[in-house]
Amino acid sequence: MNPLLFALSYFAVLSLITFFAYGIDKLKAKRGAWRISEKALLGLGAVGGALGGLLGMKFFRHKTKHKYFWAVNFTALAAHIAVIFVLAQR
After folding, report:
1. What range defines the domain where residue 71 resides?
2. DSSP class of 90
3. What is the pTM assigned to this prediction?
């Protein structure tokens, strides 16, 4: 498989998973149920789901007051864009 296509697919799938993880966590927060850990949410963003994390934060209005969520997701997104850019240059 083309490495660029693989990376784009990987980031898209992880972003969808991360987006829905933020939504599920917000729902659980409203219900007072057992939550998804902050480590898990940040980890999903770091390993490929940063775009989904940022979109999930905005869409679900969840974790938006935590500056480290913004920092981790924006930093990870920059790294993901850099990977795509490098692969596209090959």
Report:
1. 3-89
2. -
3. 0.95
